[in-house]
Amino acid sequence: HKQEEESDREAEKKKSKKKTEKVNSCLSQVICLPSIMLALKWEEEKYEDGVKWKFLEHNGPYFPANYEPLPDNVHFYYNGKKVKLSLAAEEVALFFAQMLDHEYSTKKVFRDNFFKDWRKEMTHEERLLIQDLEKCDFGELHAMHKAKVEARKNMTKEEKLVVKEANQKIVDEYGYCLLDHHKERIGNFKIEPPGLFRGRGEHPKQGMLKKRIQPEDVIINCSKEGRIPIPPAGHRWKEVRHDNTVTWLASWTENIQGSIKYIMLNANSKLKGEKDWEKYEIARKLKSCVDDIRNQYMQDLKSKHMGTRQRAVALYFIDKLALRAGNEKEEGETADTVGCCSLRVEHITLHELLDGSECVVEFDFLGKDCIRYYNKVPVIRKVFKNLKLFLENKQPGDELFDRLNTSVLNKHLSSLMPGLTAKVFRTYNASITLQQQLKELTNSNVAEKLLSYNRANRAVAILCNHQRAPPKTFDQSMANLQAKIDARKEQLALAKTELKQAKKEAKTKGSSDPKLVERKKAAVKRCEEQLLKMEVQATDREENKQIALGTSKLNYLDPRISVAWCKNMEVLVDKIYNKSQRDKFAWAIDMTEADFEF
DNA sequence: CTCACTACTTAGGAGATGCGCG
DNA sequence: CGCGCATCTCCTAAGTAGTGAG
């Protein structure tokens, strides 16, 4: 009966959503849908605005296994004395013990947060006893965990197969849903297990307890008509609703930030694919009006209104440097990171002259995921002058753009072009950069073609500042490759000598083996090819040391550019996209002709 | 305008998987 | 056939962007 009420509430909510949906519909009218829909059998009914599905059925999320108490021979000690913890306290103690090898378990913020949350899980008596984290000895718990990891690693083939089959069974049961007559893969069908929260960078909440999610915390979203997922035995769902204006199948509220987590479809699903295609179509539309927009913000740099000037400078950065929008964030809730609109005075330094360039802006700030953005950029004089103006009478901690935020900026952008927001510039600039770079490069053999492709991909990754930690084994594997190259070089020299010898013999005394010269020639050629391939690989790997290509490939580069390139260059799509990428971009692989222009 | 809330995309790292080589 | 490394998959945090109330 409660669930009935909930769905009534939902119906009312939907009515108030009507207005929103009108706006969305404008957007889809701007972009013409038909061609791709036919290509992909997406032709079935196009629903009224905002409706994402007509039928949705699934088995609900998969819950992690319950906590298994410690075996009798593993103990926790406080102040040197054996202490048998309550189940709840023990579980959390084990979370900490498992992290003892990580550097962050030594950080004060992490330890303080952990200890505070751990004590909340303790019984009254435990809380009285355990007052100092330093006096806690998790040694045996830690050792047990390490032994378990080791044991898992040393499993026999048969044991591994058993585990694999069990996992497959879970995927079969929970990993798929039925959405409008199609069986679709679910992206994340597992409820996130409890543990200690570790944010990125200097996160103020690191070490806090991320609580176990119960079915009573979970909202299920599915069709009224179909089967409703059955909660685990002895449990009930928080709510079952039937909202077909959203794409999620289940959700719960996470206790660290209080944000909502969703169970959603896999990237290869029709719903996600259409959205992805739409994203690139909007970016292509920007291509057709970007000149006007650029002229406009150049004019705005001279505006009488400070707000307009700030908007223009921000837009200049977003366009030229592919900066993120930079929503404001709640202080103390997350690590201190910024994007364009939230840049502070301390994040830029102005240089009238630097390394032979005039009007250089030096950026140094932490962006998303605490990845450092460091760049020295010559800018046009008008931008430089404006920045000087914005900096006047401000302290390092003050906002650079005090009259601007992302909502003001996006409102302006959507007035210039329907669907235009700050992030569209990133998509547009990434994709157009790839297309340009690929045009400039021509190579003969496949290895070189792929190096060219990777270089173009890399140019985009650098633009978008997609970094990675250098792989732990980088130096070693680089040295190994170099050794292989050296060995091959020697082999090549030898092969050449042998060829010469063979030629000489053939000339002087007529050969005992008439094919010998041919064979030696082939050996030299093979050797040269292998050497080239390795050298190309070495270059590629070196240039890629700290650059992550995956993110741009997956999220910013219109796959049709890549597919068209493959067709033109006669490179197999498999060479640039792995299986899951091919799945995600199936729509582009199906529909793209060699003459595609972004 | 601000704030809270929601829904969705984008992100790097850890661990699992698998592949080439001797 | 096992080993060591590269690649891929999974995980979930951290963004963007929109809505509506006050």
TrEMBL record:
Entry's Gene Ontology molecular function annotations: DNA binding; DNA topoisomerase type I (single strand cut, ATP-independent) activity
Reaction(s) catalysed (UniProt annotation): ATP-independent breakage of single-stranded DNA, followed by passage and rejoining
Coiled coil regions, renumbered to chain: 478-544
Enzyme Commission number: 5.6.2.1
UniProt cross-references to SMART domains, sorted A to Z: TOPEUc
Gene Ontology, cellular component aspect: chromosome; nucleolus
Active site (UniProt): Y556
GO biological process: chromosome segregation; DNA replication; DNA topological change
Keyword terms: Coiled coil, DNA-binding, Isomerase, Topoisomerase
Enzyme class: isomerase
DNA topoisomerase I eukaryotic-type domain ranges (all copies): 196-570
Keyword Membrane: no
The protein's role, per its UniProt record: Releases the supercoiling and torsional tension of DNA introduced during the DNA replication and transcription by transiently cleaving and rejoining one strand of the DNA duplex. Introduces a single-strand break via transesterification at the specific target site 5'-[CT]CCTTp site in duplex DNA. The scissile phosphodiester is attacked by the catalytic tyrosine of the enzyme, resulting in the formation of a DNA-(3'-phosphotyrosyl)-enzyme intermediate and the expulsion of a 5'-OH DNA strand. The free DNA strand then undergoes passage around the unbroken strand thus removing DNA supercoils.
Entry's family note: Belongs to the type IB topoisomerase family.
Name used for this protein in its record: DNA topoisomerase I
Organism field: Sparus aurata (Gilthead sea bream)
Gene behind the chain: zgc:173742
